[in-house]
């Protein structure tokens, strides 16, 4: 591997950017492609599939053989609110392989006993997120019902480009939330990204069922996200003539 290729991969990892290394198996030529900088031609579909699944694979295209080695940042779930739903969601998220962090300034809820083995931050979200910033590979889930706690991280998630933003609450509660967000000059396109009531509509009733609905919604959004939405264009690997 060329030194500049390794440097590009390491830079992407440090920046928590998704990246694939495309190697032409016929001549050994490498191409680094960031998510959003999709190659044109016949490789595009294979690269998109790699970004969505996180699985590396070899492909035969246009008479050439390529190996697509994908490197995705660990997906994080940041939950605002140390409630019963959060307890169930934390257990399930770990089983699926997600990193999870719980943030809640209410120390009566945010206790190590209730969240054993889970990263727990008993601070106001606006303070906690200064040291633990959100990014495009973070899902933000707000479940306190308290706008003083939920609103700021929701705004931060929308402005940062978190791939998933969900908020607990009835339709009436969410309508009031939307008015507050519009008052903060949040664009309608961003507001429409909020999953509320949070999670897939599976008729969930108990905290554990709601956690299932939330986790399923996060996975669905991650796997079907718009891979080509980021700016930039990559140069095609040599030999891609389709």
Would you mind describing this structure in some detail?
The protein has 242 residues and is α/β, with parallel strands linked by helices. The chain has 2 domains: 3-71, no CATH class; 76-223, Rossmann fold. The protein is built from 8 helices and 10 strands. The protein has helices at residues 3-14, 43-53, 84-96, 125-131, 147-160, 171-183, 188-191, 207-223; strands spanning 19-24, 30-34, 57-61, 64-71, 76-80, 99-103, 119-121, 138-142, 164-167, 194-195. The strands form 2 sheets. Strands 7-6-5-8-9-10 form a 6-stranded parallel beta sheet, sandwiched between helices. α3 links the parallel β5 and β6. α3 crosses α8 (207-223). The longest helix is centred in the C-terminal third of the chain and has 17 residues, at 207-223. The chain is elongated. The two termini are 26 Å apart. Residues 231-242 have low confidence and may be disordered.
Features:
single chain, 242 residues, alpha/beta, Rossmann fold, six-stranded parallel beta sheet, four-stranded antiparallel beta sheet, 10 strands, 20% strand, disordered C terminus
Q: What distance separates the N and C termini?
A: 26 Å
Main sheet characteristics: 6 strands, parallel
Helix proportion: 25-40%
The count of domains is 2
Helical stretch tally: 8
* Element-by-element helix/strand order: HEEHEEEHEEHEHEHHEH
Flag low-confidence runs. 231-242
Second rung of CATH, namely the architecture of the largest domain? 3-Layer(aba) Sandwich
- Name the strands of the widest sheet in spatial order: 7-6-5-8-9-10
The rounded Rg comes to 20 Å
């Amino acid at each position: 591997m060329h030194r500049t290729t390794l440097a590009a991969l390491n830079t992407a990892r440090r920046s928590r950017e998704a990246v694939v290394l495309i190697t032409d198996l016929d001549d050994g030529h490498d191409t680094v492609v960031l998510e959003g900088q999709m190659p044109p031609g016949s490789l595009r579909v294979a690269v998109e599939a790699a970004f969505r699944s996180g699985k590396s694979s070899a492909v035969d295209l246009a008479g050439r053989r390529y190996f697509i080695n994908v490197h995705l940042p660990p997906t994080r779930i940041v939950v605002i609110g140390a409630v019963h739903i959060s307890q169930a969601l934390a257990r399930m998220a770990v089983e699926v392989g997600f990193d999870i962090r719980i943030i809640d300034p209410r120390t009566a809820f945010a206790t190590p006993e209730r969240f054993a083995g889970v990263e727990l931050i008993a601070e106001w979200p606006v303070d906690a997120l200064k040291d633990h910033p959100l990014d495009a590979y973070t899902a933000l889930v707000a479940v306190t019902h308290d706008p003083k706690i939920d609103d700021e991280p929701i705004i931060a998630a929308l402005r940062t480009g978190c791939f998933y933003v969900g908020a607990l609450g009835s339709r009436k509660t969410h309508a009031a939330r939307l008015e507050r967000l519009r008052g903060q000059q949040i664009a309608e396109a961003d507001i429409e990204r909020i999953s509320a009531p949070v999670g897939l509509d599976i008729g969930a009733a108990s905290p554990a069922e709601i956690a299932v609905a939330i986790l399923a919604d996060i996975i669905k959004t991650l796997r079907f996200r718009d891979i080509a939405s980021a700016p930039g264009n990559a140069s095609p690997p040599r030999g891609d003539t389709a």
